[in-house]
Amino acid sequence: MPLAPLVSMHDGHRIPQLGYGLYKVPADDAERLALAAVAAGYRHLDTATLYGNEEGVGRAVRRAPVPRDELFVTTKVWNDDHGFDETLRAFDASMGRLGLDVLDLYLIHWPVPSQDRYVDTWRALIRLRDEGRVRSIGVSNFHPHHIERLVDETGVAPVIDQVELHPWLPQHAVRTFDTERGILTEAWSPLARGRVLGDPTLDRLAAKHGRTPAQIVLRWHVQLGNVVIPKASSPERIRENLDVFGFALDADDLGAIAALETGHRTGRDPDLD
Ligand SMILES: NC(=O)c1ccc[n+]([C@@H]2O[C@H](COP(=O)([O-])OP(=O)(O)OC[C@H]3O[C@@H](n4cnc5c(N)ncnc54)[C@H](OP(=O)(O)O)[C@@H]3O)[C@@H](O)[C@H]2O)c1
């Protein structure tokens, strides 16, 4: 069974490079599909308070035939819970739903600059890390200028920035900024919610490598150095999406995928909220 490689974060902890994303996985399906992912070899599960399926993810972690310390669980504080005390309460609520003692990674889901509270939220994450309740802390949907403000005001940089990233939106500026500071870039909607998969370039590369278009895109993420968390709704697709470590794209292939860039976002620009 293939496992995704572990990638080091700047705090010394490691994260499996490919995980299973659970956005829009219904609460009733979360345990079954997360267990299918673990059976397929996934060791990294990405949920959020917003997704409404933390209970199912927690049950899967507790029932998985894999030791807890071999599984990596991420959840996220939602926009309504920004602020120091609010975030500490939201974390307790998430941990109650997950039923876990320690979380691997806690993220601020969106900066929501209009509320101007993300620095206080970040101070709460630092507190939780210092208390040992979460091993690693990071952000999601943060532009470089939001991260610079966190570092300026607290001296603590996130280990990861989880952003929308796929062939239409390769996020050059974010990846360059993150690389320079030792922050990992994690790709959400790595398949552009499945919409990029109909592109003829991907069909051509899939035929060339004897793979599927989804595997071509996920392999591109891996070679870029992204952490990547595809979502799928069937055990077959879940297995297919992890099976990207046995082949490589060449420079021509990478150039052909680079040419797909349009700048199209499937989600919102974080500065507009
Ligand atoms: N931080 C954030 O703000 C944020 C925002 C969005 C997402 N995320 C995270 O990122 C994860 C992934 O993003 P996403 O769920 O938006 O989109 P995605 O992973 O880019 O795409 C999922 C879509 O692609 C389809 N798909 C998956 N594997 C496939 C395959 N092998 N062949 C054909 N189609 C395939 C799925 O279909 P089926 O489901 O029908 O199989 C689903 O419709 C989320 O689950 C969540 O954990 C984070």
TrEMBL record:
Active site residues according to the UniProt entry: 51 (proton donor)
Site (Lowers pKa of active site Tyr): 76
Organism: Agromyces intestinalis
GO molecular function: oxidoreductase activity, acting on the CH-OH group of donors, NAD or NADP as acceptor
Family according to the record: Belongs to the aldo/keto reductase family.
Keywords: NADP, Oxidoreductase
Protein's name according to its UniProt entry: Aldo/keto reductase
Binding site for substrate: 109
Domain NADP-dependent oxidoreductase residues, every copy: 24-260
Superkingdom of source: Bacteria
PROSITE patterns registered for this protein in UniProt: ALDOKETO_REDUCTASE_1 (PS00798), ALDOKETO_REDUCTASE_2 (PS00062)
InterPro entries: AKR, Aldo/ket_reductase_CS, NAD(P)_OxRdtase_dom_sf, NADP_OxRdtase_dom
Coiled-coil blocks: none
